[in-house]
């Protein structure tokens, strides 16, 4: 760390880090802080100086938080952000809650900073740091309803940005932006230095996803990894799912992030938004539909699809009105066909999605009118031509047979 280029192998001997974890307090105006966040894993240009240092500061905060959260209670973590050196005999004057400031500023950063090549890494750090702060649930069996981090997210400062935050996370998922070339090795899992950043981030995200799926999603490690990972898109989707699945607040106050996910509308919908619907917004349904069709290899994307079909009436009606439903249904059927390679939660969600879709009579009629040719992933026999409805029936029967013969589920 410091003004020189750093290597991961040198961190244990770094003098700046030794000073940071030392016993002596450091004034907030000490030049040490500017030196500490001036390390480089990549060389910044002069125009990138502020974003470079902000990224470095967030990266260090995230690494420290990951350790603190695994070892401390929320109250003890709060004390780390509340320490204030006072002269002997002086009284304790009121001071701001720095942990709350951190969470609120992270939300502001995500919604206010546009996604550009130069801002990609800092947005990734902001989203992942929020995931780290929400990872306290990993260390508790019971549902955390009164935690500090949860309370911060439910306060007006964050709640007022609910619709913008959910919309931004959805657009991050839709855009599927790859890491820009100058910073690619930051997230490259194969590089010696870059693996540290991506590894820390993916570790927390995988842990949270394991909580959602009760550990089932980890049964096939590495199955969903792409050759060129999309770190911001993946982390944004995970954060969106975590926020949407937070418990409701006290006095039956609904989760505002879930409300935003379940009531947003299409940008082409010109009807007025009902006044009783809070935190709603408009988004391009065509772009979202396309992204959902393309990303069904990921069980996180399948969970988002299930959530929207089950809880967002606007999105469900839009999907059922599409004339190209095969683009969505075929990837779901491919999940079921490769049932032995998928975790049980992914298969279960795929089946529930088909159940929701087949409740619609128009869908049931239309899938038998769509003719598919050359289904290459169906290897048991050559399907040169088959209707979408027949393929659905064939794959579902095969899934039932697999469960009965392999897992003894009747």
Automatic annotation (TrEMBL):
Pfam family, one: Dymeclin
GO cellular component: Golgi apparatus
Organism placement in taxonomy: Eukaryota, Metazoa, Chordata, Craniata, Vertebrata
Assigned protein family: Belongs to the dymeclin family.
Keyword terms: Lipoprotein, Myristate
Top-level taxon of the source organism: Eukaryota
Keyword Cell membrane: no
Organism in which the protein naturally occurs: Oncorhynchus kisutch
Gene Ontology biological process terms from the UniProt entry: Golgi organization
InterPro entries noted in UniProt: Dymeclin
Keyword Lipoprotein appears in the UniProt entry: yes
Record-given protein name: Dymeclin
Signal peptide per UniProt: none
